[in-house]
Amino acid sequence: MATAKSLRRSWGLQLVLNALLWVIPVALLWLVATPLYNRFLLGSAENLVRLTESPNVTNLLRKDDHFAYVQRRDFPPAKSLVHSFRVTDVHFHLLMLGVLFLAVPKVPWRRRLENLGWAVLITVFFDILLIFFYVKFAYATQLGAWSLEHYGAFGRNFWGLGKHLLDLPFKFSLPFLLWAGFYFNDLMAEIRPRE
Amino acid sequence: MANKQTASKPPSPAGSFWQRNRRELTFLILFVVILGGSFTLISVNWVNDHVVEPFTAGIAWLSGGALHLLGQNVTMTGTVIRNPRFAVNIRNGCNGIEAMFIFIAAVLAFPASWKSRLAGLGLGILAIQVVNLVRVVALFLTGVYFPKIFDTSHTVIWQTIVILCGVLLWIFWANRFAAPPASEPAT
After folding, report:
1. How far apart (Å, rounded) are the C-alpha atoms in residues A36 and B4?
2. ipTM exceeding 0.85, yes/no
3. Which of A75, A91, A44 is nearest to A139 (CA)?
């Protein structure tokens, strides 16, 4: 029984220690990939926004490696840049995701990488959806009289609350949600009743 | 067992998926509902003005006190901490509420005894707020002495550290302390 108890201890502690070891390599990889990923996200989100508008008037323009502008081509040129946001802030949860998925002890590398791959894919879709909500939120609530004219009370609340929920709780908790989805049984298997 | 299954009506694919994954699905659904509910609640203006803002002001006050101890000549106004060289406004996202709510939702959704949950909540929330206090102090000092890396430090490094702390604390709690005694079933 003492062995079972020490094994239980070692799984949780081992995961925490592994996570600490993975933070720097994952952060470096994320930093290197960020400019490229930002471009990919802006392109994909722009396409998604355009699916919901006719005619297509939205451009998502890269300002630098981290920031982007939302541009409406139907606005006067001096006022066409209607909103800006930091694209890098959208996806720093990938860092947490990588650390959590790589840190799980007693799981073969093949399964670990497979799970990480699926989780990253889901996160990419989430990130594109989040930028879509950024743009809709800006249109519905940030453009003064134009927003009031084009969005009703329900629309403003929908995009406002949607952006709030996706941008704070779900962006922050997505790595954990995915981790729990893939590894909940591994965690439960390590829990034994206390004597 | 096989005979019994062929004799009775086979479960539908959705039903068998639910039965196979009941524990984790229940956890995930409860987690999302509690987390979404708590964040919807704090997005209500009244709750924000009467609960979140005073809580955030308390964090600003504690952080200001810690900065005083470190020799920084700061003044506090509401949620703003400033000295002649730099000022920060502690807002949602910087008050540790996100990490706290993720931790609380995960603890409440996990099948453990209420005693374990309450102990986990008390110690976990305290630990998260201590880490958040270190974050606010460190960010202020970064703003004063290394302003060029303030943005990255603010939105990437410390957010990641605080949320990761909450998640790792939960995993440690669930693995080590949430187990029911042999005689007591989890609720």
Report:
1. 56
2. no
3. A75
Query: For residue B168, which residues of chain A lie inside 8 Å, CB to CB?
Result: 15-16, 19
- Residue from B131, B133, B153, B134 nearest B142 by CA: B153
Neighbours of B107 (CB within 10 A): 24
User: What does each of the 187 residues of chain B score in pLDDT, given as a tens digit?
Assistant: 444 444 566 777 777 888 888 888 999 999 999 998 998 898 888 998 999 989 998 999 999 999 999 988 888 888 889 888 898 888 877 888 989 999 999 999 998 889 999 999 999 999 999 999 999 999 999 999 998 888 888 878 888 899 999 999 999 898 887 766 555 554 5
B:108-127 residues touching chain A, CB 8 A cutoff: none
Using an 8 Å CB-CB cutoff, list residues of chain A that contact chain B.
Answer: 8-9, 11-13, 15-16, 19, 23, 86, 88-89, 92-93, 95-96, 99-100, 161, 164-165, 168-170, 172-173, 175-177, 179-181, 184-185, 187-188, 190-195
Whole-number Å distance between alpha carbons of B91 and B79: 7
- Please report residues of B whose CB lies closer than 8 A to that of A19: 164, 168
Enclosing H/E stretch for A62? strand A58-62
Pick among A94, A191, A192 to test the B interface (most B CBs inside 10 A): A191
Report helix, strand or coil for A189. helix
3-state SS class at A128: helix
**A73: which 2 tokens?**
């081509």
Torsion, Cα of A11, A13, A16, A19 (10° steps):
-60
Give per-residue burial for A124-139: e unless 16+ CB within 10 Å, then b. bebbbbbbbbbbbbbb
Tokens (6 digits) for A137 = 């939120």
